[in-house]
Design goal:
This protein is an alpha+beta fold. Helix content is about 50%, strand content about 20%. Helix 10 runs antiparallel to helix 23 and helix 10 packs parallel to helix 24.
């Protein structure tokens, strides 16, 4: 990319419905040298490619400000919108403080509390129109007659003036079909028809709807922005014996920070001293504090609940888990679902079509059937107000944004509406075994002492394996430490490549290794071989502990299933979703794990074999592949949807279509339930938007409803759709039968 066509990004404030985003997009797309325009409503972002030699950044900003929105470059303080629905300076509202250049505090500062509705631009416009309408009604009650009529006309003209001004700006930007234009025509037309009182009421109801849309959109955005508030603004930096308070975003990798009981951890890092319960619910949704000790990782934003911790910073502020989640959620709005793209195309046709119907309704009955002109022009004006597609346009992004935000708060990440829609269609889940259905590390399942007891068997094996990094050795050492067994000192420890290890304990050489090593030493009897076979048939790895003269005993190990794996498979089955396990392990081990979980197993698969299996499954089903995000990357990419189990690792968040931060298999059905709930919410929203419009279209043509009801059909539908989408913020993901 050359400097002349740089990717540029701004924050646009004042957008609170889908048509607002469409207006910004339309105005900017009309500029020469502008391409790849992307406007996202929930995070107020404008992104585009700009040929600086043709159009300057200032020209883009001017085009947006002309529409009444605020615009500021990425990273700068957000600009309050100028104009919009603000009465002339000093009239009723004192809005002179909203002049160009007025700014909110920078994002790096402590964000102020959301202003009350009456302190917002649209709130003040609502108050002004309310005052004007109330004054006119008072005059009507006290004086009445023609004077009251002229007062209603004056109230309407003053109230609708900002709307007309904005409609003109939109028309200049080649966007004639806007709610402002339709509102202006309807209000002015009502005045000419002598319906001044109704015209004033219509403008007031329009202001009510605009204010409610702003409040609803602000709440939806707040659910996403709340993620950013999880990381504390300051950190306690440890340098030698001194502890000083510094900005959290200034921390560098390798520095040590202190987290006191009750503190939020300021950075992703590793504990270097101390042990404490850590509440990770802000990051992963895990409600029970997890015991963290030296060497274990912690997330920025999690809460230290008990003792003091010293933590080494492992990631810069812009790369910590919360920042990556927030970035993922923000970027996800760009990955629009197919249904959203369809509705966007449909809405572009919908408004002109309704305007055409309104025009026909106004002229055809009088011309063809001799019907009264006043009656049908009035009905045509009412139909105009039904033509705004705001509710329809916002129906999908509002639900998707709420679903993504809710998922992020529960450790269920999905990269956009397209991923959400795909997840909802899942009919088969393919699981990797190691690290996904299982813990990813071997654990001792059986201690079979043949001479002596379990303590001596475990102590001897641990002595031989001391210092070894092999996973089986680590499992033996961990069990010995867990049981508090005193491990004797071993000398001359040696690894036997691919077979085991040996060491000298109290002048006697001991071996720990595969059964074939003991067979070669001649210490396995037929009964011992039968015991080994029985354990291996259960999918376990058997280790023998022996000297050249006798077999001390057998130790069986296996990578055990996660505690919730069987429950998750059962939950998927109840949802009508099949499941299959894909593993590179031998068929015996794979079958043993699968039988315990109630899942079909396909074993002995190399990475390329997993890809082949996933593609074959995808021919007959909608496949979600769940893996660790690293070794299973090819298979994840081959499925309709790839989900990584990765505890928030960088790879897990970046490589797949989604991620499960809590490493819980039960989160797979929860993620699918969330996707299904979101898509159901979208269908409800579309039904509300089109249903209300359709009902009032018919009732208006029949003369049952008039102008003010038409306004409620528009703004009311937008508010209902947004509030319905916000219900997803309370989603818990538990099955109905639970």
């Amino acid at each position: 990319m050359t400097e002349a066509t740089d990717l540029q990004e701004w924050r646009v404030t004042g957008m609170d419905c889908g048509s607002c985003a469409a207006k910004v997009r339309g105005a900017v797309e009309a500029l020469p040298g502008v391409e790849a325009v992307e406007v996202t409503l929930m995070n107020e972002r404008l992104r585009l490619r700009l040929d600086a030699a043709t159009t300057s950044r200032e020209s883009v900003e001017t085009a947006v400000r002309r529409l009444g929105f605020g615009i500021s470059v990425k990273g700068a303080a957000p600009e309050k919108p100028k104009g919009g629905f603000v009465l002339p300076e000093g009239a009723f509202t004192g809005t002179e403080e909203f002049g160009e250049g007025s700014e909110l505090p920078a994002q790096s500062e402590t964000p102020p509390a959301d202003p009350a509705w009456y302190a917002t631009v649209k709130g003040r416009y609502l108050i002004a129109t309310g005052v004007l309408l109330t004054s006119a009604w008072i005059v009507k009650l006290l004086v009445g007659g023609q004077i009251a009529h002229w007062v209603f006309m004056l109230a309407t003209v003053i109230s609708v003036a900002p709307v007309i001004r904005r409609a003109a700006l939109m028309a200049r930007a080649r966007m004639p079909f806007t709610i402002e234009m339709l509102m202006s025509i309807a209000a002015i037309g009502a005045l000419f028809l002598g319906a001044a009182e109704e015209a004033a009421l219509v403008v007031f109801l329009f202001a009510v709807g605009e204010m409610l849309e702003g409040v609803a959109a602000s709440r939806a955005r707040g659910s996403i922005r709340a993620l950013a508030d999880l990381v504390p603004q300051t950190a306690r930096l440890v340098v030698g014996d001194r502890i000083s308070e510094v900005a959290a975003d200034s921390l560098a990798i390798g520095q040590i920070v202190q987290a006191r009981p009750g503190d939020r951890i300021p950075a992703d890092g590793t504990i270097v001293s101390g042990s404490s319960g850590v509440d990770e619910s802000p990051v992963t949704g895990e409600s029970v504090p997890v015991l963290k000790e030296p060497g274990e990782a912690v997330f920025a934003g999690s809460i230290n609940t008990e003792g003091e911790l010293r933590i080494r910073v492992e990631k810069a502020a812009e790369d910590n888990t919360i920042s990556r989640i927030l970035h993922l959620v923000e970027e996800a709005e760009s990955a629009r679902a197919p249904v959203e793209r369809f509705i966007d195309r449909f809405s572009r046709v919908y408004m002109p079509a309704v305007v055409g119907v309104a025009l026909l309704a106004a002229v055809v009955p009088p011309l063809v059937f001799g019907a009264p002109w006043e009656t049908w022009i009035y009905r045509g004006l009412a139909l105009l107000l039904i033509g705004c597609p705001c509710a329809l346009v916002i129906s999908v992004p509002a639900a998707v944004a709420a679903g993504l935000s809710t998922g992020a708060r529960h450790g269920l990440l999905m990269k956009g509406g397209a991923v959400m829609e795909t997840a909802a269609k899942t009919s088969l889940v393919a699981f990797d075994k190691t690290g996904t259905l299982t813990e990813g590390r071997p654990q001792i399942t059986d201690l079979v002492p043949l001479h002596g007891d379990e303590v001596s068997l475990l102590a001897t094996a641990a002595a031989v394996e001391t210092g070894s990094s092999h996973p089986l050795a680590q499992a033996i050492l961990a069990r010995a430490e867990e049981r508090g067994i005193a491990v004797p000192q071993a000398m001359s420890a040696t690894t036997i490549p691919g077979r085991g290890a040996r060491a000298v304990i109290a002048s006697e050489t001991w071996h720990v290794g595969a059964p074939r090593l003991a067979t070669e030493a001649g210490v396995l009897t037929e009964a011992d071989r039968a015991a080994v076979h029985r354990l291996e048939s259960a999918g376990k790895t058997v280790v023998t502990v022996f000297t050249d003269e006798r077999l001390l005993g057998l130790i069986a190990l296996r990578d055990e299933p996660r505690a919730d794996a069987a429950e998750a498979i059962a939950a998927l089955k109840r949802m009508g979703i099949g499941s299959v396990m894909l593993t590179g392990d031998n068929p015996v081990t794979g079958r043993a794990i699968a039988d315990g979980l109630g899942i079909e197993a396909r074993a002995g698969l190399l990475p390329e074999d997993k890809v082949t299996e996933v593609r074959a499954l995808a021919r007959d089903a909608h496949v979600m592949m769940v893996g660790d995000g690293i070794n299973d990357a090819p298979a994840l990419a081959s499925a309709h949807l790839g989900i990584a189990m990765g505890s928030g690792t960088h790879v897990a968040l970046e490589t797949a279509d989604g991620a499960l931060l809590r490493d819980r298999v039960l989160d797979v059905p929860r993620q699918i339930r969330l996707a299904r709930a979101t898509m159901a919410n979208i269908r409800q929203n579309v039904a509300i938007a089109l249903g209300l419009k359709g009902v009032f279209l018919v009732t208006t043509l029949l003369g049952v409803t008039g102008l003010w009801i038409a306004v409620m059909a528009d703004t009311g539908a937008t508010v209902l759709v947004t509030m319905n989408a916000l219900r997803l913020l309370g989603f818990r993901g538990e099955p109905k039968e639970a």
